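Reading is simple: the token line describes the chain's fold. The lines below illustrate.

. . .
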Amino acid sequence: MADKKTIIVQQTGSPLRRSGDQRATLIGLGLNKLNRRATLEDTPAVRGMIRKVSHMVRIVEENA
């Protein structure tokens, strides 16, 4: 079985003064504090979540 692709995402912005759904998206990604990193499976759902809060996160690394 092939290894699954992963993405490492780092939070770069604060969720303060953001809408509740953006805060919930960060928590769903496993992020809630500045500079925290999360390793996530590379799926369309995760990519959509990253796109929704792209102004507060950055992709550090993509593994094939």
